[in-house]
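Predict both folds.
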Amino acid sequence: MADYFTHFSCLLDVGTPDKATRALALFQCLRAADQDADDPEVAGFDLVCQDGPKGSTLWIHDDEHGDVEAVIRFVLRLAEELDLTGLWGFQYALTCSRPRLDAFGGGAHVIDLGARNSIGWRSSQEWLAAALNGEDVDA
């Protein structure tokens, strides 16, 4: 039997140590609430301050089985709570414990923090299938 995984590791600079502290507090509060939830909000990733208590950069990474959608929801919530602006994005990898067809790939997401929405994403599996079908894949 094969095990399937989604992995990612990315940084988000929230601007100030105070905002990083607030982000970590929100994450811990949501994580505590998730223990009894049927649909956890921040499951599938972990959050730590990259440079200790005086840093403003958060390290977002999977905790064995990553949840890309949970990261996007949380970052959009942080953008609202902390009034973040600019573009931010991250990549993810799809892997498998055994060689299987269609079990490997990945993708990337870009988020407009100021507009509070995802502005685009690309799946390597879908890109490859389109390219092999002769479709225009430059856009």
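Second protein follows, with its predicted structure tokens after the sequence.
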Amino acid sequence: MSVELLDTTRFHGFRVRRQIAGKTYQEYFSLKENGKRLRGPKRAAIKQKAEARDEVLRKQQEKAKAEAAKTALFDKDGKVRGILFRMKTEKSGMRTPVFQIGIMSAKVGKIVNTTVSINLHGLGGAWRKAVDFYIDHKKISKRTKTYKQLLSAQPTKAALEAMKRKRKKRR
């Protein structure tokens, strides 16, 4: 809740303030009438009015956050942020292609990581497992358009081969 009681020499009342999509919304509800401080039912009515306005702003803020989260799923090249192609070095020294997922989880409230082996699951199967882990932690339904967009962002075999060659050159 962002309803705050201000009691200064210049103002006595409630301030409602929220940030929505980078813009600050701030409104004041005075607890003075004719130079006197309000008490009792009048004060309670103004507090209720401030809390009702805060609730409206909270809903707008949640909606804006959800929209921002959806647009932040893809980078400028159309790749999914948080799912990377990597060549993982196993304990045996073998290098295995994997999708590495590292994201902030809305489900557990912290950063989660995992890898999915492309050799074990195949390119399509590994991508689906990676996306399923991703949507589970980002709280995205499988029935949404966003889920279908995530699945269709699967890198091609040719793109993965090009990344492998590029990484070998760097060594």
